[in-house]
Prior knowledge:
Elements: H1 3-8, E1 23-31, H2 37-45, E2 53-63, H3 68-88, E3 93-103, H4 110-128, E4 134-137, E5 143-144, H5 148-157, E6 164-169, H6 180-202, E7 216-219, H7 220-225, H8 236-241, E8 250-259, H9 272-282, E9 287-288, H10 291-302, H11 312-320, H12 324-332, H13 335-344, H14 349-359, H15 362-375, E10 380-381, H16 382-392, H17 404-415
Helix pairs in contact: 6-9, 6-16, 6-17, 16-17
Amino acid sequence: MTKYLQKSALFPAQIFGAAHPSLNLIVVIPAYREENLITSLESLANCQAPDGAVEIIVVLNDSEEDTKKVKKENQKMYQQACEWGLTHSSALRKFHVLYHTNLPARHAGVGLARKIGLDEAVYRFAQVGNMEGILCCYDADSDCDKSYLVELENHFLQQPKLQGCSIYFEHPIKGNDFDKNIYQAIIQYELHLRYYIHAQRFMGFPYAFQTIGSSMAIRADAYQQQGGMNRRKAGEDFYFLHKFIPLGQFDELRTTRVIPSPRISERVPFGTGRAVGTLVASDEVLTTYAPQSFIDLKYLFKVVKQLFKIKPAALADLLAGFADPVQEFLLLIKFSEKLHEIQGNTTNLKSFEQRFFRWFNAFMVMKYLHFCRDNFYDSVPVDAAAQWLLNEYHGQSVTNRHTAVNLLKRFRELDKKTKKMP
């Protein structure tokens, strides 16, 4: 029992079988009315074997407000998954299925389910004394490359200081499993996801990483040090990973692939499933943040080093040169006062920059973009924004003749380029 488990775990250990001494990787899967759960488990069963043992923990869940029909579906899937797990488990790859029914409606959802599973994984690692074991988040409707487990293990093994990573993903964009309209919608939505991260990198934001719940991994000790998973019903992945990203020991695993589902879902108020459903229902083109929003903020990030010892009079002159949206936003967040506080608590440029970006972080960037969208710049079609960014930032020659799928493939190729943490 670790200090984290004593203080923050919601339940005692629920898996009582002995863990293999070489246990080094645990995949946690939240599940709610998941008809494709077995298919998802099969994708993990078919993966190449890493050197260490692997466990997969499924957390089926429903709330006290769910209908009898939902609970009956979950009970049926629980029985099927348990039977499947028994026949497919081995000494080095075990499948466990937990079922939490009637969870408090206030908290029930994907965040709570992930927390239950991740905390259970910490119990398992504690049992074998491996607090640097790898906690992987996956989804019950996802698929993956056969190299998924091996590449995860190698990625962390090769970088002992690494605390966490985002894993390369690709939604399916063609086939017979979904309606044509769903494929068209997911193409636009994934294009938006990639545009958003690349646009942050264009303007010099240092913490620009994808935060997809099915495609992330964290070491068990780092997980505990940062207080574990939150219980948010949506956006839990974004809030979770941005506790780790500013610490510096975070990167991207680009040598394997997770394949999340493009299906429609209404369980959460935002995210992939909701966005796809909205696009299909409206038959409209997806819009995203205007390029000018990023262009305007780029200048602020470009002069961060100058802010370290800047005097009030010089700061006023500098701020006067910013675009109107940036000036008004900085007034709104009391930028000058916060900058003075950061200056007073740092003694060198490196610590100043770290403290500055821990304040002007991913949440602040999003707040700024929403401010611009609501007060200055209308959203633009995602293909137009992506075309601009590929031309402006990556120096690629793309025109209006390039469709959304062509643009998405360009971004995917850029994102697949191998990059290790410095």
